[in-house]
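The methods section describes the discrete structure representation at length, but only in general terms. Each protein is reduced to its one-letter sequence and a matching series of backbone shape codes. I believe one specimen quoted in the main text would settle the matter. An entry of this sort, consisting of the sequence and the corresponding backbone structure tokens, reads as follows.
***
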Amino acid sequence: MLNTIRRGSGLLAGLLVAGTLAVATPAQAAVTPLPGSNGLGGTITLSDDHFHPGDRIDISGTGFTVAAGTESAPGRPVLGVKVQDDTYEDEGFPWEAGGASYVASPGGAVDGQGGYAAFQIEEDGTFDGWVEIPDDWDVLGQSRLTFLGGSLTTAPDGLGKKLPAQVTRIDFPILGPDQPWVEITSKNHTPGSFIADGKSLSVKVRNFKKTGGGGQQVAFKIDGQDIVVDGEVVLPCIATDADGDGQGTIPLPTAANSLDGAADHTLNALAGTACGTASPGDPGFEAPGRMVPKTFKVTTAKVTSTTHYPGGQISVQLHNYLSASGFGGQKVAVLRVGAPSDVQLGCVTTNSAGNGTGTFTLPANTVVGEVSVQFLAGTACGAGADAPGRSLRLPLTVTAAPAPPPAPQAIANTAKPTVKGKFKVGKALKAKPGAWSVGGVAVSYQWLRNGKPIKGATKAKYKVTKKDRKKKVSVQVTATAPGYAAAVTTSKAKKVK
């Protein structure tokens, strides 16, 4: 239950992972679509989404199929279950296991060999069983069951029906008696979004009990600060049940870029008196004061360029634009919103972390003044159905294009360059730069043979070679000065004897 108080303003080799199948989720149960090969679709359901030492975890599954090529083989396929991936592979399955589909020795293997418990898949593609956490289990916090297919069967020689090679994992917490737990179950979080999806955090709280037992109220802040929604400070509260469990939706700040996409943020679950001492209508015992942090990331867009004018460029930076699964990037359309009409500037493809940058050209007909840049994730760039739809819009000031710089002044040659020396093979010639209208010019030289540059002859002195015989030699002088256009002039050409 959620109330909001407003205040003034390394597994089996060769396993394959493919697409997932959307399924309905029973209340208070962890359900995972089962990825696999050969078009396999199925679900695995746990009896709850958190457990305690001594609890029995009921496990069931539907939608399993036999691997191609083993349909006519004897026996039934078997699904292996491991605790914490391969952690207990050498010592055997660390918990008790049983149930209608439990198999003690699949394919002739010793029970628990490889650290797994085994469950037979029935002819209708289902299985039903359980695993039990020992009373003295002390590995608390986030835990995992890993489900494996592709190698086990009930046939004694191991040559029977099998599942397609597959692996899937279900994560859940194992909690001590008084260990509070906060879980953010949503994946995509976009403060300031124009679309409802992503504007809040979906949150579960577990084991939040008041002193003496029973539920309590849990307040929430972000990064230790109040949450501001539409300019008003709000205090979201979740009321827990008698077991200390509850769930709700925590709004994100509505201002775009109110949270930094490049940083981790913390959802602070505050149990105490901020939302009242206990559950609504129950003045009861004081709620023990405690704070449980949970980190999360947000999706943000930022304009990194500073000056924008019609026909000029705009640079943008995106953080945490991930696909709907939360793994891998997506494509994000960048639009200019404003007169004379909205126009798509281009697309940014984010990397596996959901980050990306792009530079685009504003249309030349963009009207000077206040417009917006919209970042639209979905299908505008062909991102496909698994791209979560969300939209951020940022203000953009467009100014008139800067006036072109004035043309540089010219340097005038007031006296032609001259050449001293004899125009004979083997003799040295020396150039004099002449005179210019601007004082302190820098000059450079290029000697010419019949008006064409002589390779390497770029100094004031030049020694006449045999190639120059009966050719006209001259020197070209270039004068430069800061703020002026370069000026070029050439001496009078003279024939070499």
